[in-house]
Backbone:
């Protein structure tokens, strides 16, 4: 499959002007908002990688006055959607999105350092170079003790945590052999350590997903 034919989302999305609506983002948003709240991620500067429609960013920023959020995505229509959500909710002063390829991370030093780097449902729908780019960005752009948060499916120590995740992994690899559910212990943690990121929290979430947090060492 050529790059141009790859889907940027594995679902149908409704639109309203430039604003895209993702059924999965609407479903998981309350659980993600609760994780941000209970893990103390609701203050300071966030860099989001692979923001998709921008609904996570928009609703988290709207609900938390202490957050300012720089969202990025490879896909220009997703970036436009995120910026339109910001306009729609009157939070453009605290949420802005730009097109960035996470596998070729830019220098964010003029915007950072960040308190949180966040990436939801991205690293299994992209080559491993995207995971590597995200971790490199987090290691370089987070404040000491800042946090890198991932949401999505993970296997643990080489084993899928649910039959449905094993089937999803096969489906992803059929679409593109460079995609696939990442193994938290074998794929993510060793690459995180190389970027001075220590595993802090692994929280089970609905639908066999996880909210995973790394802390940037001082
Ligand atoms: C399944 S969507 C997830 C969107 C959103 N984070 C969510 O959880 O609803 C995956 C997103 O990753 C983005 N993406 C894929 N490869 C990327 C890359 N190399 N750099 C930045 N974003 C990328 C896609 O464009 C898409 O918007």
Residues:
């Amino acid at each position: 499959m050529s790059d141009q034919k790859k889907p940027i989302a594995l679902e149908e999305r409704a639109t309203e002007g430039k604003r895209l609506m993702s059924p999965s983002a609407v479903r998981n948003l309350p659980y993600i908002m609760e994780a941000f709240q209970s893990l103390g991620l609701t203050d300071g500067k966030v860099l989001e990688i692979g923001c998709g429609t921008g609904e996570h960013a928009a609703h988290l920023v709207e609900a938390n006055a202490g957050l300012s959020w720089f969202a990025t995505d490879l896909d220009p229509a997703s970036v436009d959607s995120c910026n339109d959500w910001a306009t729609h909710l009157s939070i453009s002063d605290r949420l802005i999105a730009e097109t960035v390829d996470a596998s070729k991370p830019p220098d964010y030093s003029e915007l950072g350092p960040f308190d949180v780097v966040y990436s939801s449902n991205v690293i299994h729908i992209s080559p491993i170079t995207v995971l590597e780019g995200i971790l490199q960005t987090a290691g370089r752009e987070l404040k000491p003790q800042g946090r890198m948060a991932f949401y999505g499916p993970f296997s643990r120590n080489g084993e899928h945590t649910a039959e449905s995740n094993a089937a999803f992994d096969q489906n992803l690899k059929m679409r593109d052999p460079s995609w696939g559910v990442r193994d938290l212990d074998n794929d993510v943690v060793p690459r995180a350590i190389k970027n001075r990121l220590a595993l802090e929290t692994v929280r089970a979430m609905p639908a066999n997903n996880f909210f995973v947090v790394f802390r940037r060492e001082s």
Notes: Residues 3-216 form a domain with the Rossmann fold fold (CATH 3.40.50.150).
